[in-house]
Amino acid sequence: MDATADAVEGAAEAEARVLDGRAWSDFCDALKLAGDAVSRPGSPQDAFDRAEGYRYISRLVRVALESYIEFADPAAPVLRRPAHETVKIGADNPDNHYQSAAISGQYEYRIRGQRGSVYYLGLGTYAGNYGSDERRGQTGYIEASDLEIDSEGRFEIQVSCRRPASGKNWLPMERDTSSLIVRQTYQDRRLEQIADLNLERIGGSGPPAPLTPLALDSGLAAAAAYVRGTANLFCEWSEGFRGELNALPVFDPAVARAAHGDPHIQYYHGYWELGPDEALLIEVKPPVCEYWNFQLNNHWMESLDYRYHRIDLNHHAAVQAADGTVRLIVAHKDPGLPNWLDTASHRRGTMCLRWIRAQTHPQPVTRVLPLADLVAESAG
């Protein structure tokens, strides 16, 4: 059977699945299986963490439907926010304004932008996703520091598999590229303006094509696979971090890149767990780098609610000693000391330290002690 006949048969099967309801039923059944991540043996046993776990699954469903149904057409790409204040995935950085779009290596694209004043701007192309068995990883990357930007802050980037004949602003793709991810990182969110970006397919015009039964059927299947794959991936990470409790070991850069991480970031991931009157003290002398931050997450690797609690600090906000050392304090109550991170009513969770373009990679030192002892020790 040739490719055209295969396509016709696939479209006919998708139409039948939509008409008789199997497309929707299979999607619901797959979501039920995705929820098993919350009750897997390595997950917390208390109702609070389990409730957050099921909310996490619901958030993944929301972003998956946007990714694979609403904004899935690479011929008509739309930049949107895949992670934000109420969708959190894989130790999402509270300092980041994330954007993403479906793209394809079979097309070429143009990004027009106005730089704004946000501290860091990075754009990457990626293959695969968390719920797929296909190759997963980065296919191209470019930062604001690499761009030619005019005197008014405007720039244009070509996104393509082949390098353009002229111009410095090229973001590479490969044939299996499937997504664009933009990271805009604030140093101080109150004072900075994000870059204004517009993405378009070169040679494309007009509205997106109408939804087809095949697009719906395949999109629902892909969305369910994404929810299950994402939930299980980061549960596995969290359980692995728990093996070195209240420590911050360096994270394998190859694993981070495969999970669509920024190639210029070194990550340290760990798992914290504290009693009511305990504190976790993290001491590190950050290296020379463009940016660093530390954050607290729940067990599901969602950043804690930074809208209402101080759960992260970066190089701009942290108080440093005269020798450059930073003492970060994780505790349930404010000890009245600099660099306190609020656990936001959580007893346990994951944590992440990251820096961009660091010249060295010092190992943070951690210890747990009674909060009263920490206060007394700090008082000298």
What is this structure's SSE topology?
Elements: H1 3-20, H2 22-34, H3 47-70, E1 96-102, E2 109-114, E3 120-127, E4 137-143, E5 154-160, E6 170-172, E7 177-185, E8 196-201, H4 213-241, H5 253-258, E9 265-273, E10 278-284, E11 291-296, E12 312-314, E13 326-331, E14 340-342, E15 348-356, E16 365-370, H6 371-379
Parallel strand pairs: 5-6, 13-14
Antiparallel strand pairs: 1-7, 2-5, 2-8, 3-4, 3-7, 9-15, 10-13, 10-16, 11-12, 11-15
Structure description:
The longest helix is centred in the middle third of the chain and has 29 residues, at 213-241. The chain starts with a helix and ends with a helix. The chain has helices at residues 3-20, 22-34, 47-70, 213-241, 253-258, 371-379, and strands at 96-102, 109-114, 120-127, 137-143, 154-160, 170-172, 177-185, 196-201, 265-273, 278-284, 291-296, 312-314, 326-331, 340-342, 348-356, 365-370. It is of the alpha+beta class and 380 residues long. The chain is globular, with a radius of gyration of 22 Å. Helix 1 (3-20) packs across helix 4 (213-241), helix 2 packs parallel to helix 4 (213-241) and helix 3 (47-70) packs antiparallel against helix 4. It folds into three domains: 1-70 and 214-232, no CATH class; 73-210, Jelly Rolls (Sandwich); 245-379, Domain of unknown function DUF1214, C-terminal domain (Jelly Rolls), CATH 2.60.120.600. The mean pLDDT is 94.
